[in-house]
Write a structure and sequence with these properties.
By secondary structure, the protein is an all-alpha fold. The protein has one domain. The protein contains 3 helices and no strands.
Length: 78
């Protein structure tokens, strides 16, 4: 069984698959940048650490788990 379920993720982003893809991809990039900054000793201004504990090492999975857990918020620019 796939966790988190796509149906649950779509509910958290208003039912739009496009929005889900954009939010998850941006957060996965932030998590990736965070892990690269760890080795370089750079501050965490632009790349906050993962907001959940995950068994997965895949950044996109971590991002989707954060979305499912309600840890990620987004806004649509006007």
């Amino acid at each position: 069984m796939i966790y988190p379920r796509i149906d649950d993720l779509l509910k958290t982003v208003g039912g739009s698959r496009y929005t889900l893809v954009i939010v998850a991809a941006r957060r996965a990039r932030q998590i990736n940048n965070y892990h690269h900054q760890l080795g370089e000793g750079i501050g965490f201004d632009e790349a906050p650490p993962p907001l959940i504990e995950s068994r997965s090492k895949n950044y996109l999975t971590m991002a989707m788990e954060e979305i499912a857990g309600g840890k990620i918020t987004y806004h649509v620019p006007a």
